Task: structure prediction
Amino acid sequence: MRRLIAWIARGASFFLFWRVEIVGRDEVERGRPTLLVANHFNGFVDPVVIGGALGRLPRFIAKATLTDVPGVGPLLRSVGVVFVQRRQDGEGAGENRSAFHECHEALDRGDTVCIFPEGTTHDRPHLDPIRTGAARIAIGARAAGVTGPVIIPVGLTYPDKLAVRSSVLVDFGAPIDVAEVVPADAGEDDHDAVHALTEAIHAGLRAVSPDFEDTVDRLTFELAAEIATRDETGASSLIDRSRAARAVAMAPPAEREAVRSAMGRYASLLTALRLTDAEVAGRTTSASVLWSAVVAGFWVAVLGSLVLATAVVNVVPFLLVFAASLRTTTPVTKGTVRVLVGLVAFPAAWLIGGIVAVDGVGPVLLAVLLAAGGAAAAVALVERAVLFARRVAAWYVTRQREVAIEALEDVRADVTRVVASAGGVDGA
Result:
């Protein structure tokens, strides 16, 4: 069951994001008792992304209040979710002995357990205070006889939570060996040991997660980092961008102010000239536009018939997800709504379509697979079309505003220089 859910999570990640960048996944060794600790910036999307990135489903720890929703408790328990009481949830909070014991047993089997130690999901641009539950679970597991438990921080970075088909970075950090942080005879009620391990978890999580003073700094430093880390083709990896932005955020005040000033000047000029940094950084050539057209045409020829054949089945769930997304205004909730509506609407539409179109279990399952393939093909074709349109637009702008672009190159170089001075680029 958990393996099936992991495959569903991977499929959901494909539909949610056009780009999923995973770094350090090898740190999570199979068969080793591992506690994952992740930042929680995007609601139900976070466990979906982690499950898809790992390729297997860890034992997630969730708040017990979710069981108040009819049917949710048994469903989540069936896929290994462990429920814990939070202090802010009122009566019974803090009574988690049985839940922690369940985690200890899972770790003793060499399983992977995952917890969001901030305690709740949120839209803030920085980590919330880290709760002590993760440290208590890890220390208690070792005291219960689990051999060599490790804690691995997982940073989830979403450049744009509101956008449909955005991108996400999953950054697995350096393992924290419990034995190296707390004494061998410490138990989960040892205040000093719990505090020390919680501080280590916080430091490890900060090293892989977005952590900015406010939203303005987050947007400014992330954009500056994207500019500074673009290669000659105009591309920028999410991991390079994320690390550069964090380095700037942790730089001395004078260096942070220099980045703000350079970015303000560059952004103002870009807006006035109606240009983007991608157009300044990477000149789009006629050859690249022609190649993009060839690739788009190839995919239309290969997948077009499948998309058309399954369009009737897929258009209704697509519209339902779109409508639900429009009705949701809170960023941290929007992704959750998309996932939940999509997980219900698409399989239901595929199954109903299969039952209406053909008879027999085998043909119905085949029809469901074809409909799923059609939905994936539609997403791929739309993205190819958008990419082609962007290349054509960039090519036109490059030819029409070449003088303006050349004038901006020195201003852009100043942004790269101040980011490097702040430690955001290797070799600074």
Q: What stands out?
A: The mean pLDDT is 90.
